[in-house]
Amino acid sequence: MKIRHSGRALALAVSGLLMLSACSADTAPEEATGPPPAATELMQVLNEEAGDEDRLPEGFEPTESYIADTLRLLARSSYGEHFAAEGINGELCLITVAAPKEQGMDPEVAASTCPPLEHVLANGILLAVTGGESSFDVVTYLLPPDISEQTVTDKINELVPDNHNDLRPPVEIISEESTLLLVMTSETSQELGDFQLPRPNGDSLTIRPLD
Question: Taking Cα atoms as reference points, which of 146, 141, 107, 106 lies closest to residue 126?
Answer without folding.
Answer: 141
